[in-house]
Write a structure and sequence with these properties.
Layout (H helix, E strand, L loop, with lengths): L2 E5 L2 E4 L4 E8 L7 E7 L6 E6 L6 E3 L7 E6 L4 E6 L8 E8 L11 E2 L3 E6 L1
Parallel strand pairs: 2-11
Antiparallel strand pairs: 1-3, 3-8, 4-5, 4-9, 5-6, 7-8, 9-10, 9-11
């Protein structure tokens, strides 16, 4: 089993920055692919960013590319999401997820955190 705990959410003004953290425990972190997803009020959960453990390859949704950066510290079993130039439409609950498979699809992420709320005011 893998336990994921997100932190770092909060209220920020448009144009501001936040850094989310996700601490993992329970299995070898370095071999896991880690992802961030978000769910805005009244909308379905969507992909934000992901990082493959071994290759260090990162992926981003078009809506956040150039503004958000996913990174990981395998020594600390932690993945981060640095969010810059935040917009009101970035308001959502942000979830950390992990998989030890090859697919990064939302339905294939086997482990999920409980989420952290990010609110961006205009």
């Amino acid at each position: 089993q893998v336990q994921l705990v997100e932190s770092g959410g909060g209220l920020v003004q448009a144009g501001g920055s936040l850094r989310l953290s996700c601490a993992a425990s329970g299995r070898t972190f370095s071999s896991a692919a880690m992802g961030w997803f978000r769910q805005a009020p009244g909308k379905e959960r969507e992909f934000v960013a992901a990082s493959r453990g071994s290759a260090g390859i990162t992926y981003y949704a078009n809506s956040v590319k150039g503004r958000f950066t996913i990174s990981r510290d395998n020594a600390k079993n932690t993945v981060y999401l640095q969010m810059n130039s935040l917009k009101p439409e970035d308001t959502a609950v942000y979830y950390c997820a992990a998989t030890y498979g090859s697919s990064l699809a939302q339905n294939d992420m086997g482990y999920w955190g409980k989420g952290t709320l990010v609110t961006v005011s205009s």
